[in-house]
Amino acid sequence: MDNTNILYGKKWAVCGDSFTNGDFSGGYSETFEDGPFAGKYKTYGYLIAERNQMTVQHLAVGGQTMAMPPVPGTFSNSFSNGIYKTIDEDVDYITLYYGINDSHHRPSSTGSDGEDQTGIIHLGTIDDTDNTTFYGAWNVVLEYLIAHHPYAHIGILVSNGCETDDYRLATIEVAKKWGIPYIDLNGDERTPMMHRSTNPAHCDRAKELRMEAFKVGGRNSHPNIKAHLYESWFIEDFLRTL
């Protein structure tokens, strides 16, 4: 046992969409050849867990949103649709990485990453209390996690890749409301910018260069294998601060 490594042997609930689960269609991919994660894509979660001999409860699913459309039966692949209640009681760490697909379900959405866009999801306001808006779903989920996992180390990964910057700002706002630490993958004074950043403070040329280096390729702008490895190091550092 490594008593100097705070992450060693810990259990981590990794929650997110395809930017967490991995989507390498049309491009190069790598999987672990042996060990507990044999056959799994080398995404940031499994890379971090492998380095620190962590156990992973993998709850990430491509196309998953944080919120639910208010019209019943239109869409069900939402984290707030009960998935957050399946997090194991004994997890030590919980990370949440959402926003891209909620932005694809907004009114007048301009596109998607190939996932189901059925059902409208509004951004909402910080005071919303049900899971049918982006803000409201965050409020529902964070209240539950704080109440039912009071000793878990919870962190939010502020999603790059959303259609508008409203989702980055909303995620940061709810993180501050509930006192949950966050790391902004759109880039800030503490964190390198990943591709598809919506942060208006960064220049277009920097964003172009990141896109060229980090996307899978062609029309698939999900993070490639090298992007997952790159971001895994500062996401790991973030975990150590929780």
Describe the protein in words:
The protein is α/β, with parallel strands linked by helices. The chain has one domain: SGNH hydrolase (Rossmann fold, 3-Layer(aba) Sandwich). The protein has seven helices and seven strands; from the N terminus they run βααββααβαβαββα. The strands form two sheets. The chain has a five-stranded parallel beta sheet with strand order 2-1-3-4-5, with helices on both faces. Helix 5 links the parallel strand 4 and strand 5. The longest helix has 17 residues, at about 225-240. The model has no long low-confidence stretch (mean pLDDT about 95). This is GDSL-type esterase/lipase family protein.
Low-confidence stretches: none
What's the number of structural domains? 1
CATH superfamily: SGNH hydrolase
Give the integer mean of the pLDDT values. Answer: 97
List the main descriptive attributes of the protein structure presented here.
single chain; 242 residues; alpha/beta; Rossmann fold; five-stranded parallel β-sheet; two-stranded antiparallel sheet; 7 helices; 13% strand; SGNH_hydro_sf; GDSL-type esterase/lipase family protein
Task: List the topology elements.
Layout: E1 11-16, H1 18-21, H2 44-52, E2 55-58, E3 93-97, H3 100-104, H4 134-148, E4 153-158, H5 166-178, E5 182-184, H6 204-214, E6 215-217, E7 220-223, H7 225-241
Helix pairs in contact: 2-7, 4-5
In brief:
InterPro entries: SGNH_hydro_sf. The chain is 31% helix and 13% strand.
